Amino acid sequence: MKRMPDPAEHTKLVQQLFVKHMIPLRGFLLGLTGDFNRVDDLVQETFLRTLEKAGDFTEGTNFRAWVFAIGRFTALSCYRDLGREPLVFDPDVVELLAEDAPDFSRNETRSRHLQPCMEKLAPQARRAMELQYQKGHPPREIASIMGWTANAVKVALSRARAAVRECIERRVATEGFR
Amino acid sequence: MTDDDTFQLLVRRYLDGEAGVEEIEALQAKLRSGGEYRDRYWEAVEWHALFRQWGEQESGRQAEAESRRQAGRRLLFPEAKTEWTGRTRMKQRATRSSFARWAAGISVAAGIVAVVFAIQWFMPVATLTQSVGAVWESQEVRPGERLGTTTLRLREGGAVIVFDRGARVVLEGPAEIEVLGDNVCALRSGKARVHVPESAHGFKLQTPRFTAVDLGTDFGCAVGPDGVGEVHVFNGKVDVEAQNARSGRVRLSGSEAVRIDRDSTSPIAAVSASFLTEDELTRRVLLQSGDFLGAWKIVSKQLAEHPATVLHYHFQETSGDRVPNRAQRAPAATDGRAIGAAVSEGRWPGKGARSFRSPDARVKLALPGEFTSLTLLAWIRVDDLHRLPNSLVMASGESAGDVHWFIHRDGGPLVRVLNSEDPDHSVDYLHSQPMFGPGNFGSWVFVACVLDGESGAATHYFNGERIGARYRFVRGPYRLAAAELGNALMRDDPEAGNPLSNLDGSIDEFAVLATALDAEEIAHLYELGRADSR
User: Fold this and answer.
1) What is the interface pTM, i.e. ipTM, of the complex?
2) Beta partners for B461?
3) What is the pTM of this model?
């Protein structure tokens, strides 16, 4: 016999689920905003909204889809709130993108192979990747930090991304074969 | 530049934060124009997000210790003006006060502190790699999902959790397990089988009544409802520290096991079969997805690695006349040679076989040595029966101990062995009931013949069931020194004059084991390989 969920416990469950699905949510919001920093703000705002609406979530249903919907609503509400910068894309494009978004489960598989594949990069390529993805610098800033031309940086990053992507895809494809 | 190149460049410039107003308009126009552009955009975003995830985890790895000390202690009050240090360290930009603004409007429960802290530092330490028939207690955990410190409750089914340091845990429901770190977990109830590679030596498994520390490599652990538990070590060493007063630490080696309850720790028998293996779980996953060939590969590998297997042909070769012996303990020069036996299809799409329908079709093989006991296993498809022996495997000539295994024209399997004790070279044979006929021509079946030299018994099996036996059978030793698969060598002897002794059908797997398998093992092999696998 299923007992009625205690509200405090239910909220705790929703919190735990949020944490569990946070990385895919960040990917989703990244697609809508394009900016690493905006994403962090949106994630936190989505979190608070999720807690407010915790009662709307039914245990056992698709949490990810539900929280993505809240994320999308949060992103679009930028256009209504005064004092908040709207997103770069127009609202209609954001809506279209939200509808066609993947659920980021592919990344969960790929992330297993991230470390070993990143470690294979040559030191300079890896440094450029660190500067972009860890420190959040755009290519022209990376160029001045590393003393390269902006073009050289873009080529290096493009090649590094392609190499890591190929490494991960290959490992994913051969997973399970000993 | 192609249209795709242009589009990818726009996406790249947008994600790099370098796109100008016109470029953004152009990008949006493309995104509005069709779903295929949006799909490609999302693909780029997925990788962008993945690299960002790596970047943050790098920062997390570097800054974790210090920030944990600082950020965790601070309470979040609605009117707080202090910036959240963990976040600013990562981004090195001014953080907005928006978070504090929202917090002001909502009553903040104490629990939020831990969760908000977790948001920034959610560090996955393990991955759920597979599951089959899994029913989870509250929310579903999907294969591929990364796990942080969390409790998983599996109501039924099986799942594999791989910890980041390398330890692999096969969980069998109903079970409750808590992931505590990248090399430590707590099994609150249920059964788990653990494989620990060298990188993960020291893997710790806590239970209500004891803690097991693996020193490499394989063990199983079961925890009952009242906390009573068992540890079975299959390979390597495990230290078990019980909480009960009597016992201190016990070190177990391979094939040792203990049962731990409130008062004592007692030795029991180690039973590997009680603990679901990853191979078996993988096999079930493959079966469930209809990948019969993939599931079979796992079983085939196990048969090839069986300590008693001396010959194993799996017929997956698609060309040439060589039939390699896949047995791990294959004696030298035991590959077969196919003559006139065409490559054909086996039990499932992708499964290879050899057809022996051509009258002179055969695979010549030579298995040196004499065997106290022998088990012959074959997956065959009979398309017709002719009046001469429908050969399965036939040793050459008439030396003492030579084994001939075939299907009699009446459809009954027959094995004959020359009796070495009799000076007149009489023959012992077991002719079992007719099993082959028009009713199953064209169907794949599993036939087995067990010659037990120690008890002096010969037994025939058909699809896993015993169909006939003979006790006081010649005890061997048995030989297959020069033999043929699917045909009979008698043909070369002008005196014998048996021209068409081939198997009018196909064989897709054949194995010889230097031991006498029992009925349960044969039945199990049938279940694992049947064509209508479920």
Assistant:
1) 0.94
2) B448, B466
3) 0.56
